[in-house]
């Protein structure tokens, strides 16, 4: 790893990550234009079918199978998504948008701590319910096919948005950043799905979420050492796989 591209971040001030990621290798995305109502319905069906198919079978599922599941013809499918990569990115866009909406709900919660917890539960559920898709995306990440540049920025920004009210209320241990929340969710992954094809009940994995949350409550010694910088990590992965 090159010393001029650290994968840690020791800044603990309230900030978003949108200006920190720089350029990350991206895949092509179909143009987004206003649609007629019937075209929008077809698009929604395609995206829902793709999401379910990717969750069940990973990214190797044939586009023909996705089109059949959506109940649309090939011409309709390829008019919206000329490549599978475009479809994959559109599905990923949906997940990122869901995280942003969850972060906004967390920030508006009357209890900032419960807001942060609900954000983490939402994120963990999303990972649990779509493990096949995210496993496949992780594999592609090491093969030079990255998320569009703003995806890592937006994802990291959601954790900062969900964390900020609890930190401002004095509920968070000194030094905790949005990147730490992202790292905690990564740590939770093996508790959610310890082995391929095995998914642990939510009543079980929330026990480990509570353990992780207990480590960031106020009233403890300040954290030492830098936190992971996920933007720098994405750049490093791009260089290694190039």
In short:
The chain has 242 residues and is mainly α.
Q: How many helical elements?
A: 10
Series of H and E elements = EHHHHHHHHHEH
DSSP strand tally? 2
- Principal-axes geometry comes out as elongated
- Per CATH, the architecture of the largest domain is Orthogonal Bundle
C-alpha Rg (nearest Å): 19 Å
Helical fraction? 55-70%
Read across the widest sheet, the strand sequence of neighbours is 1-2
N-C termini distance: 14 Å
* CATH homologous superfamily designation of the largest domain: Tetracycline Repressor, domain 2
What is the class of the largest domain in the CATH system?
Answer: Mainly Alpha
Instruction: Give the total of domains.
Output: 2
Structural class: mainly alpha
**What do we call the CATH topology of the largest domain?**
Tetracycline Repressor, domain 2
| Beta fraction | under 5%
Give unreliable regions as ranges.
1-20, 22-31
> What about the largest sheet?
2 strands, antiparallel
SSE topology sketch:
Elements: E1 8-9, H1 37-57, H2 63-70, H3 74-80, H4 84-108, H5 112-129, H6 131-141, H7 149-168, H8 178-192, H9 202-214, E2 227-228, H10 230-241
């Amino acid at each position: 790893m090159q010393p001029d591209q650290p994968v840690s971040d020791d800044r603990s001030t309230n900030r978003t990550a949108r200006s920190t990621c720089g350029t990350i290798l991206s895949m092509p995305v179909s143009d987004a234009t206003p649609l007629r109502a019937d075209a929008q319905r077809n698009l929604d069906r395609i995206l829902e079918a793709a999401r379910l198919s990717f969750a069940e079978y990973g990214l190797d599922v044939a586009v023909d199978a996705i089109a059949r599941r959506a109940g649309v013809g090939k011409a309709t499918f390829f008019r919206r998504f000329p490549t599978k990569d475009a479809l994959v990115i559109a599905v990923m866009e949906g997940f990122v948008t869901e995280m942003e909406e969850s972060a906004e709900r967390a920030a508006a919660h009357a209890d900032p701590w419960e807001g942060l917890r609900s954000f983490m539960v939402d994120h963990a559920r999303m990972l649990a319910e779509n493990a096949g898709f995210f496993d496949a995306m992780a594999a592609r990440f090491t093969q030079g096919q990255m998320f569009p540049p703003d995806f890592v920025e937006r994802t990291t920004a959601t954790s900062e948005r969900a964390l900020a009210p609890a930190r401002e209320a004095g509920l968070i241990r000194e030094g905790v950043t949005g990147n730490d929340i992202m790292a905690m969710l990564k740590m939770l992954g093996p508790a959610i799905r310890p082995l391929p094809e095995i998914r642990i009940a939510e009543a079980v994995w929330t026990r480990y979420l509570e353990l992780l949350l207990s480590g960031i409550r106020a009233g403890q010694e300040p954290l030492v050492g830098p936190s992971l910088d996920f933007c720098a990590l994405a750049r490093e992965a791009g260089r290694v796989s190039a």
